[in-house]
Amino acid sequence: MTGSKRVLLAKPRGYCAGVDRAVQTVEEALKLYGAPIYVRKEIVHNKHVVSTLQAKGAIFVEENEEVPEGAIVVFSAHGVAPEVHEQAEARSLKAIDATCPLVTKVHQEARRFAAEDYDILLIGHEGHEEVVGTTGEAPAHIQLVDGPDSVDKVTVRDPSKVVWLSQTTLSVDETLETVARLKTKLPLLMSPPSDDICYATSNRQDAVKAMAPNCDLVLVVGSQNSSNSQRLREVAVDAGAKAGYLIDYASEIQDEWLADATTVGVTSGASVPDELVMEVLDFLAERGFGDVAEITTAQEKLVFSLPQELKRDMKANAAARAAEVAKTLS
Ligand code: 2E7
Ligand code: F3S
């Protein structure tokens, strides 16, 4: 049996463009303004990312009130309600908004449909920061639909003027089911102008679906509060993996999980640095799973530029330094 042990490694996995931008935003802010930099909520839902940034001087807070007046605050990738921007202004905070541009797009859709007086059915998980932020754009027009079983509770003012939007990190299949149930109840329900479940979420789920039927177990690297990572574990099991586990670190892997396994699938959520996946591969190799085959279902090239407010200060700083150098040389 030892000779046939192998690992299937999903690709795409790990960092998406929005996470890369958000993490870089905090890193660049630390370099530019110096520590401490305050960050409202976890910049992304990953323990390792948060503790690494803490060690570099980031201070994570739950609310703006915890940030000293006039200090710098970064808003997390999951987005914030407009009132959070207003609170920051009232405290004279310098806010840098690391909201993923694909979440900003959903906020814009919410504002537009609310302005046209639609009832908006937001499919998402109750209490998730992204859902809280999007709902804050138009609380009077938005109601949450937390999965197919919540459809029965939905009531609308005018069944001919209803649209659904969604959180970006949902299960693609479960969302299709929720929408189908909603359409049975509300045949005139409108769909969003473009997909709200983002490219990274659906690509990672596709890759897991491709490998899961051949896996005895799938290890998903990701934190417990990471919605997209949780969905990957569920998708793996639904697609045929005999078991699925969500782990932050390789050290959490239990030998009994591997005892009867021949093929182990590995993937990671959109907030997970690939070094953590490499540590999982090292751990598995030490236990006889050294043969690794990457299962690639898509290529990703999307890159987002840093928030405008940060780029502007970085540029001004670079110009000031160049002027100083020129003065020294003259
Ligand atoms: C922002 C958004 O930080 P995550 O684990 O967040 P989820 O939403 O999956 O809990 O992953 C990256 C990310 C995903 N969506 C960041 Cl809106
Ligand atoms: Fe953005 Fe999707 Fe990543 S919404 S933060 S690209 S998981």
TrEMBL record:
One Pfam short name: LYTB
Pathway the protein takes part in: Isoprenoid biosynthesis; dimethylallyl diphosphate biosynthesis; dimethylallyl diphosphate from (2E)-4-hydroxy-3-methylbutenyl diphosphate: step 1/1; Isoprenoid biosynthesis; isopentenyl diphosphate biosynthesis via DXP pathway; isopentenyl diphosphate from 1-deoxy-D-xylulose 5-phosphate: step 6/6
Swiss-Prot/TrEMBL GO biological process terms: dimethylallyl diphosphate biosynthetic process; isopentenyl diphosphate biosynthetic process, methylerythritol 4-phosphate pathway; terpenoid biosynthetic process
Residues annotated as the enzyme's active site: E130 (proton donor)
Cofactor(s) recorded in Swiss-Prot or TrEMBL: [4Fe-4S] cluster
Catalytic activity: dimethylallyl diphosphate + 2 oxidized [2Fe-2S]-[ferredoxin] + H2O = (2E)-4-hydroxy-3-methylbut-2-enyl diphosphate + 2 reduced [2Fe-2S]-[ferredoxin] + 2 H(+); isopentenyl diphosphate + 2 oxidized [2Fe-2S]-[ferredoxin] + H2O = (2E)-4-hydroxy-3-methylbut-2-enyl diphosphate + 2 reduced [2Fe-2S]-[ferredoxin] + 2 H(+)
Residues that, per the record, bind dimethylallyl diphosphate: H45, H78, H128, S226, S227, N228, S271
CDD domains, per database record: lytB_ispH
Co-factor note (free text): Binds 1 [4Fe-4S] cluster per subunit.
Binding-site residues, isopentenyl diphosphate: H45, H78, H128, S226, S227, N228, S271
Binding site for (2E)-4-hydroxy-3-methylbut-2-enyl diphosphate: H45, H78, H128, T168, S226, S227, N228, S271
Positions that bind [4Fe-4S] cluster: C16, C100, C198
Record-listed E.C. numbers: 1.17.7.4
Alphabetical UniProt keywords: 4Fe-4S, Iron, Iron-sulfur, Isoprene biosynthesis, Metal-binding, Oxidoreductase
Gene Ontology terms, MF aspect: 4 iron, 4 sulfur cluster binding; 4-hydroxy-3-methylbut-2-enyl diphosphate reductase activity; metal ion binding
NCBIfam families with a match to the protein in the record: ispH_lytB, PRK01045.1-2, PRK01045.1-3, PRK01045.1-4
Role: Catalyzes the conversion of 1-hydroxy-2-methyl-2-(E)-butenyl 4-diphosphate (HMBPP) into a mixture of isopentenyl diphosphate (IPP) and dimethylallyl diphosphate (DMAPP). Acts in the terminal step of the DOXP/MEP pathway for isoprenoid precursor biosynthesis.
UniProt similarity note: Belongs to the IspH family.
Identification of the protein by name: 4-hydroxy-3-methylbut-2-enyl diphosphate reductase
Organism field: Dactylosporangium sucinum
Gene from which the chain derives: ispH
